[in-house]
Write a structure and sequence with these properties.
Blueprint: E1 10-14, H1 22-33, E2 39-43, H2 51-62, E3 69-73, E4 84-89, E5 92-97, H3 103-109, E6 112-117, H4 133-146, H5 151-154, E7 156-157, E8 172-173, E9 178-185, E10 191-196, H6 199-202, E11 210-215, E12 218-224, E13 236-240, E14 245-250, H7 255-259, E15 266-271
Parallel strand pairs: 1-2, 1-3, 3-5, 12-13
Antiparallel strand pairs: 4-5, 4-6, 6-7, 8-9, 9-10, 9-15, 10-14, 11-12, 11-15, 13-14
Helix pairs in contact: 1-4, 2-3
Length: about 270
């Protein structure tokens, strides 16, 4: 890359938190490759080891990040036999562990066009730690991709069909009932379900004002709303969230607390009789 060609930005997500120096150290490693690299911090508040939450957050960001390098480190298997990867999907590169973290974003970008294994990349820091690959492997690889390196310059090709994927529950949809599961709970306690928002037009959800919701905590009734402004304060609603999925929320409150639900809990929806 010439001095006149700016590097691509890096979108950075991790479960490192905001208390320790880990995020800043990764920033510093990236800037030693090229001080012009713009690092966009997607989130570092992912719960430790929560691959599903990290994968979904990365995928949501990918929809708005054309030609970006996506650096993601939620890596409970660091130092083990999991592979370290760099991928090409659409106009983006993705860098992180082979544990499913990258694949929802790759799918959103189209498909994996190219994949390399980077555990022994020539651009890794030396000596490399056994427990901080975010600093020693993933950050330098992301930086070199941002300034124009080819995947084949930094790793060995691998078969993209063998990459690890995260298992997500599959909903059961009928005209009488929808059986689904909680995928994630966000900062506000809103509960994202494994249901596409298109069901508001393609099922009984689009023909009723309210639904009966059954969980392990018991039954409840709620309205189907487009916005929180349509709901009274402390009212529970079913709505299409900003990522396009259906979700449960409590206006000015927490659905997670109200219903006692956590990821993978079952939720049954039926028309209000």
């Amino acid at each position: 890359m010439s001095a006149e060609t700016p590097p691509r930005p890096i979108g950075f997500l991790s479960d490192f938190g905001y208390t320790d120096e880990f995020v800043a150290v990764c920033h510093a490693v990236i800037r030693t490759v090229d001080h012009r690299i713009d690092v966009i911090d997607i989130s570092h508040g992912i719960e430790p080891g929560d691959l599903r939450r990290g994968a979904m957050a990365l995928s949501s960001f990918a929809a708005y990040s054309p030609a970006t390098v996506l650096l993601a480190v939620v890596d409970p298997g660091v130092g083990g036999d999991r592979r370290a990867l760099a991928l090409k999907a659409g106009d983006c590169n993705l860098v992180g562990p082979d544990n499913g973290l990258l694949m929802l974003a790759a799918d959103r970008l189209g498909e994996v066009d190219e994949a390399v294994e980077i555990s022994d990349t020539p651009v890794r820091l030396q000596p490399a730690s056994n427990t901080f690959h975010g600093r020693d492997i993933f950050s330098p690889v992301a930086a070199h991709l941002a300034v124009g390196a080819a995947l084949t310059d930094i790793g060995e090709p691998v078969d993209a069909s063998g990459l690890v994927r995260i298992d997500l529950p599959v909903a059961e949809v009928s005209e009488e009932e929808i059986v689904c599961h909680v995928l994630i709970s966000d900062h506000y306690g809103n509960l994202t379900l494994n249901l596409d928002g298109a069901l508001l037009e393609g099922s009984f959800l689009g023909r009723v004002d309210g639904v009966r919701v059954r969980t392990a905590a018991g039954p409840a009734r709620m309205r189907v709303c487009r916005t929180f402004a349509e709901a009274a304060e402390d009212e529970a609603v079913l709505y299409r969230d900003s990522s396009g999925s259906l979700a449960l929320a409590v206006n000015h409150g927490s659905a997670a607390e109200r219903f006692g639900l956590v990821p993978d809990d079952e939720v049954k929806l039926a028309p209000v009789p």
